[in-house]
Hints:
By secondary structure, the protein is α+β, with helices and mostly antiparallel strands. The chain has helices at 9-21, 28-39, 81-95, 106-120, 156-171, 177-189, 236-250, 265-273, and strands at residues 2-6, 48-54, 57-64, 70-72, 101-105, 124-135, 147-150, 196-202, 205-213, 219-226, 255-261, 277-287. The protein has eight helices and twelve strands. β9 (205-213) and β10 form a beta hairpin. α3 (81-95) crosses α4 and α5 (156-171) crosses α6 (177-189). It is globular and about 60 Å long.
Amino acid sequence: MKIQHYDDPVVFQETIRETLIIKEAENNLLLGVIASVISGEHSDQKATLVIVEDNERPSLIAICTPPFPVLLSYENPPPEETILKALLTDLMAGLGEEFRGITGNKALVSRMALIWQKMTGCQTKLNTTMRIYKLEQVKPVNGVPGNIRTAEKRDREMLLEWYANFHRDAMVEEPDPEQVKKQVGMYLQADPVQRGLMIWEEGGIPVSMAGYAGPTPNGIRVCAVYTPPIYRKTGYASACTAGLSQQLLDRGFKFCFLFTDLLNPTSNHIYQQIGYRPVCDVDSYDFNMKS
Length: 291
């Protein structure tokens, strides 16, 4: 077993690309984050890029862009406990207080969380339980009034409010206003091939939004789906997500991915109705560094 750290994200990407795209849907977030590091999106923080090799092949891949948790490659079944312990030890030494948690395949990270508790005597908290979905063909949404359009700079103030509320709904915590400004700014200024926000409006009134980001070799992630409470249960979110997904497929992507909160049965049902199919479950754990 060998643990390798990389300073050059391009070399890191080239080294692990073929491994990750074997399970492209499962690894879509990791692939997207690596691309964003290369583009300079995380230039304010040095990314930690790690490969654990076992028998001269990548056994586990980890990337951390603080303040976010360590993101782990899809591994099912999880590697042997000695490999997981070695990676945890390495991450604790390298990240220190910035090692705040892990996100990855449910079976993998639940096992790592237990190992970490035994190693440190500290507690973990299951923060989110998610499911990755993949879509290859859209089932059209009919009967919903309105149309889809690209978000523009004139929508900025509304988008700041909507994105902050999306964060509150998804993460059940108060968002950092500066991070909200940064994220909305990136959506509005980005290359539209790589990232963007779409708005569903009826009669000229914006009623729902959906975003996309993190392109992978063959797909792209749909994200930031939000409808203000007064416009919910109307089909707007379904129509907006379906419309965006179809546009992305029409641009040449073979499939779209998205993450859902398993505690929200409504969104899981909506996405399946428009053609998204479950791929795997993903959990995120917070680590408490105090025993």
